[in-house]
Write a structure and sequence with these properties.
Blueprint lengths: L1 E4 L5 E7 L3 E10 L10 E3 L5 E3 L6 E7 L3 E10 L6 E3 L16 E5 L2 E5 L4 E3 L6 E4 L2 E5 L6 E3 L4 E4 L2 E5 L2 E4 L10 H5 L4 E4 L2 E8 L2 E4 L3 E6 L2 E3 L4 E5 L11 E6 L2 E3 L10 E6 L2 E6 L2 E3 L5 E10 L5 E4 L2 E3 L1 E8 L1 E8 L4 E5 L15 E6 L2 E12 L4 E4 L10 E5 L5 E4 L2 E3 L3 E5 L3 E8 L2 E3 L8 E5 L2 E5 L2 E3 L7 E5 L11 E3 L2 E3 L3 E5 L4 H5 E2 L2 E3 L3 E4 L1
Length: 521
């Protein structure tokens, strides 16, 4: 029942500096700046952002190298800066400082009406556990949690009207650190939380370096935003996330309030990612602003299976990976933006293809010979005339996508495979049905190299609707795809081809039941 009020001051209510063990229990902490009074951001002449809250900051608890911390039943409001904050020394691979935070637990705490992050690891502190807390009206434009900490657990919490739970976000002031390669960073479990769509809907984000992330068994209720997203975007000092499991989440993207946003269930742009046994849906009629599951070229070793996607504008979508030349070194060597700056143990873009674009259309190809993770330079196998700002799309020789065993029903655009694909890109054993959706043009639209095997497509019987719509590749050539052992039932038209002959070149052992025409150009 003790209240600490820092509304006339600055700094932290509790500032912890080193030491072995601290326990803070049963406090109410009040600052001076709520969500509605959040200070702005100023971009300096050197190109960096300055957060004006630093001019008169206040925090609930600030931790610097205290070995073990427990904060229990502490309730904070109106903090101008990061509410519960950690920043201090950390392990650098095998190098271990004498003092650093080995464990920080926040249990049954709450953060309400704050102007910045609710919880923040601005270091690589270990074993940060945020358990059974409530975040409400905190982090507008910032984060419910943001952290580059190691071995993070965000479990059993309730979040609404807040920015995202962000796993990653390495501090921008750091160089490209080698110890990321040795010990990893951003390992996290985000599980058993409830995200309610009241106010801001930041969702769960994974970006900038995390390795080994589990996102499991979370509930999203009436959500007006993107629920779960993994990003491969990088900057000068970061690497793309990898080794991610997204499983057992139930995502309700129904929104009946004012100003509905573009919304999405699960967005995957990262390699080595498993998406399984999730539900993404809208209650009632399909919503054109909702995408169920989205994947993008550049993500390797992606397995999407056992998911139920229902009543979305777009059910499952695959997109291409764009890039742009930033600086030309010579006719074979360049720096770029858009493609992730990979780990040194990765594929290093060997044998990847770049499709050069002119007026957004392919105008030539190059093959990447090597990528140097130290200099960030790409080198082509053969010379190519290029200039800064030249655009391209990149894709690997083998993507290793396995999209199987999913159910997509009631979506206006159920499946759009608009990526380059590869010989190891599979869409198989899925059930795709129209259900109550109307105005559907095609159940499955294919614009890249995908193997469609053993799928069951049914109920697309509206006039002008096709089970499959096939296109040549981005260069106008037929693809070496395989369409085998699929069942098409009660479809007005089985195949619509933008170029005649695409179906016959790849059709093997497919079955049609009570369908109209088989193929049409």
């Amino acid at each position: 029942d003790t209240v600490l009020n820092i509304s006339d001051g600055a700094g932290a209510c509790f500032g912890l500096q080193r030491g072995t063990e601290v326990t803070i229990r049963n406090f109410r902490l009040i600052g001076h700046t709520g969500l509605a009074e959040q200070p702005g951001v100023v971009r300096t002449s050197s190109g960096f952002n300055f957060w004006a809250c630093a001019l008169k900051s206040c925090n609930a608890v600030s931790i610097n190298a205290t070995e073990r911390v427990l904060v229990e039943n502490v309730h904070a409001s109106r903090m101008a800066s990061e509410c519960f904050f950690s920043g201090g020394p950390y392990r650098q691979g095998k190098e271990e400082p004498k003092e650093y935070t080995r464990s920080a637990t926040f249990l049954r705490c709450s953060v309400t009406d704050c102007a910045a992050n609710a919880f923040n690891n601005c270091d690589f502190a270990e074993n940060t556990s945020i358990l059974y807390c409530r975040v409400d009206g905190a982090g507008a434009g910032w984060h419910a949690y943001e952290g580059s900490g190691r071995f993070v657990r965000f479990i059993g919490n309730y979040v609404r009207n807040a920015g995202p739970v962000t796993i990653g976000d390495i501090p921008h002031s750091l160089p490209r650190l080698d110890h990321f390669q040795e010990l990893g960073v951003g390992q996290a479990i985000v599980a058993d939380n409830v995200f309610e769509g009241i106010g801001r809907c930041g969702g769960i984000r994974v970006n900038h370096c995390p390795t080994q992330v589990v996102i499991a068994n979370n509930l999203f209720i009436n959500y007006n935003g993107y629920a779960i997203a993994t990003s491969n975007a990088t900057v000068h000092n970061t690497y793309p996330p990898q080794n991610i499991s997204i499983t057992g989440n139930i995502i309700d993207l129904t929104y009946a309030g004012e100003n509905p946003a573009w919304r999405g269930g699960i967005i995957v742009n990262t390699s080595d990612t498993l998406v399984s046994n999730n539900q993404v849906y809208v209650r009632g009629a399909p919503d054109a602003k909702v995408t169920g599951v989205q994947i993008r070229d550049g993500a390797l070793n992606v397995n999407v299976h056992g998911n139920l996607v229902r009543n979305c504008g777009r059910g499952l979508v695959a997109h291409r990976l764009p890039g742009k030349v930033a600086e030309v070194v010579d006719s074979r060597t360049f720096l770029q933006t858009g493609l992730p700056l990979e780990w040194r143990t990765s594929h290093l873009y060997r044998n990847w293809t770049l499709a050069w674009l002119k007026d957004s259309k392919p105008a030539g190809q190059s093959v990447v010979d090597a990528y140097d993770p130290a200099t960030l330079r790409f080198k082509l196998r053969e010379p190519h005339e290029m200039r800064a700002d030249d655009s391209f799309e990149a894709f690997p020789p083998s993507a290793n996508w396995n999209i199987h065993g999913n159910t997509l029903t009631g979506c206006v655009q159920p499946v759009l495979l608009d990526s380059y694909g590869s010989e190891t890109s599979f869409f198989k054993d899925n059930v795709v049905t129209r259900s109550e959706a109307t105005g559907v043009k095609s159940a499955i639209e294919v614009r890249g190299r995908f193997n469609l095997i053993g799928n069951h497509v049914s109920g697309f019987d509206e006039s002008g609707c096709s089970a499959l719509t096939l296109h040549p590749d981005r260069f106008g050539k037929p693809m070496e795809s395989v369409y085998r052992d699929n069942v098409f039932e009660r479809c007005a038209n089985v195949v619509n081809e933008s170029v005649k002959g695409l179906w016959e070149a790849s059709n093997q052992g497919n079955t049609t039941i009570r369908c109209g025409s088989t193929a049409a150009e």
